[in-house]
Structure formats: structure tokens, C-alpha cells
Design a protein that fits this description.
Shape: elongated
Order of helices and strands: HHHHEEEEEHEEEHEHEEEHH
Radius of gyration: 23 Å
CATH superfamily of the domain at 92-201: ATPase, nucleotide binding domain
CATH topology of the domain at 92-201: Nucleotidyltransferase, domain 5
Strand order of the largest sheet: 5-4-3-6-9
Structural class: alpha+beta
Largest sheet: 5 strands, mixed
CATH class of the domain at 92-201: Alpha Beta
Distance between the termini: 58 Å
Strand content: 15-25%
CATH architecture of the domain at 92-201: 2-Layer Sandwich
Oligomer: single chain
Length: about 300
């Protein structure tokens, strides 16, 4: 099914009516992916298409197994409308989470079905972009172990800490390379669209769509692990800020003339309250001879 979607997206068309028809089909698929399920009336209102056009497009998408009818909606004075959602396996996305000392990979479809089970492996995140090759080797082995056909993937999403410009596909903190972006590197290797996102903003998207922030307009999501970050939901959308650098509370000045942070500043909140700070403090106390449960 994913191959069929790739063909639909990359289809070469000549006539304007064909191009318009394809554009409208893709727009409907995107709308259903965003809302989860829709009625014909929802499509008419959101995409400003005529009722006959929508009915015709729905019939074609049903016939091609892109969508399916699964329920009835609430009546607003007449018959209950049919609700449509995307078929399982329409899109398959490889998710890669890079943390300071681990890499987690999984493949899910558009309906959150697990296609290839989640695997977490040890991996220390480097600041040097030259280490991208080591990460792709880990990903390659995962795809082999799970018997994944790369052609079935619609795209790749990478979540990781750091100062990330999602539009440019760069991370100023980790895996930085002046000569190429992280997304360009992965796209060259796997020949698939690649999107990169700061891990806290990814958590904010997840909470907004599936978690406690669902159906809220304004929320704050705090992530505390090896570092500290803040995801901001404003007016129902994840706020990225200029260049995508919003929510970097871990690098707010907290102590005058404090410990040097990896960002280059001194006394950042992350130097005293993060997982890294706890580990460093424990090491320092052990070196001083402080008794621990390990003694």
C-alpha cells in the first residue's frame, strides 16, 4: 500500500484536470491524516470543494483502498454522515530518536500501528557531523534485522536534542557539519524525505495530538532527562520560534560564573539541574571520597 501512495505522490500528469484531481486527492488524504476521520461535509468545508467533486473523489479513494468508511458521525438534523479514515499501512515512517547516550528506532504507519518493533541501543551522541556514518550503520542493521523493505517507507523522522533548525535540517549542537545538513545526509543515503525535530518539540506534538494537551489551546511541556527543554503549545500549535530555537530553558542563566556548559555559556540551568549535572555531581563527590552504596 505504501508503494501505491508513493506512486500517487510522484505520479507524472500532463493535463490540468488530472493534476487538479491528484492535488485534491492528496489534500483529502492530508486532511484525514490531520483530523483522524472526516465526513464529506468536513472535506467540503475545509478544502472549499463542491459536494459533487468530493463525492467523486471519495469514491475513487475508496476504490483504490486509500481510505475506508468506518463509522457514522453525529447527525445535525438528518441522516448520520459516513466517516472516513485512512486505511492501515498507507504511510510507513521510520522514527529515529537520538538521545545523549542512546538511539531508539521504530516504524509505524499512519494509524499508529507498529510495523517494526521499537529497539533501543547504546550510542553516545557526538557533536561532530562525521559521526553520521556510524548512526546510519546502526539504522541499516535495524532495517536488516526487521526485514524492512526501504521502498515501503514514506519518510524518516529524526528527533534529537540541540538547537535544531527544522527547515534547514541542521543541528548546531550535535552532529554539526558546515558542509551538509543532517537531513541531506540521510536523504542521500536512503532516498527518502527526512524531517528533523528537536526532541522536546516532538514531545509537544505528541501531547497535542495524543496526550494530555489534546484539544487544548495553550500548554507547556517540560522534558527533563539528560538535559532540560520546554515545548510550547500556543493557540493550538507547537511554537517553534525564530529559527526553531524556542523553549531552550536549559540554557537560561541560573548561576553567576557557574560551571561551563556545552553551549559555551556558564551557569546554565542545565549545569545544575539536569541528568548530566546529577551524574557530574555524583562523580565529583565520589572523587572526594564521599561514601556511596557502591563502597
Amino acid at each position: 500500500m505504501t508503494k501505491a501512495v508513493n506512486l500517487l505522490i510522484n505520479k507524472k500528469l500532463e493535463s490540468k484536470p488530472e493534476k487538479k484531481n491528484l492535488f485534491n486527492k492528496i489534500s483529502i488524504i492530508k486532511l484525514i491524516a490531520e483530523l483522524g476521520s472526516v465526513s464529506v461535509n468536513d472535506i467540503v468545508k475545509n478544502l472549499y470543494l463542491s459536494l459533487p467533486t468530493v463525492n467523486s473523489l471519495i469514491a475513487e479513494l475508496l476504490e483504490d483502498d486509500f481510505i475506508r468508511q468506518f463509522d457514522k458521525g453525529e447527525s445535525i438534523g438528518g441522516r448520520k454522515p459516513n466517516l472516513y479514515k485512512l486505511c492501515d499501512g498507507l504511510f510507513q515512517v521510520l522514527s529515529i530518536e537520538l538521545q545523549r547516550f542512546s538511539i531508539t528506532m521504530s516504524i509505524m504507519d499512519n494509524n499508529q500501528n507498529i510495523i517494526a518493533e521499537t529497539v533501543e541501543l547504546d550510542n553516545e551522541l557526538s557533536r561532530n557531523g562525521e559521526n553520521l556514518a556510524a548512526i546510519t550503520q546502526i539504522v541499516d542493521q535495524y532495517l536488516i534485522d526487521k526485514s524492512v523493505d526501504i521502498e515501503n517507507l514514506t519518510g524518516i523522522i529524526i528527533g534529537m536534542p540541540g538547537l535544531i533548525n527544522a527547515e534547514e535540517g541542521t543541528n548546531e549542537t550535535f552532529l554539526h557539519d558546515d558542509n551538509q545538513s543532517i537531513t541531506n545526509y540521510f536523504e542521500r543515503i536512503y532516498k527518502k524525505p527526512v524531517f528533523i525535530l528537536n526532541d522536546v518539540k516532538g514531545a509537544a506534538y505528541a501531547e497535542l495530538k495524543f496526550g494530555l494537551a489534546k484539544n487544548t489551546k495553550n500548554s507547556l511541556i517540560i522534558l527533563m532527562d539528560w538535559g532540560i527543554g520546554l515545548g510550547i503549545v500556543s493557540n493550538g500549535e507547537v511554537y517553534l520560534g525564530r529559527d526553531g530555537y524556542s523553549g531552550e530553558v536549559g540554557h537560561m542563566p541560573f548561576i553567576d560564573n557557574g560551571e561551563l556548559c556545552y553551549c559555551g555559556k556558564r551557569g546554565c540551568l542545565e549545569t545544575v539541574a539536569s541528568g548530566i549535572a546529577l551524574v557530574n555531581n555524583a562523580k565529583q563527590e565520589i572523587q572526594k571520597g564521599e561514601l556511596t552504596k557502591l563502597n
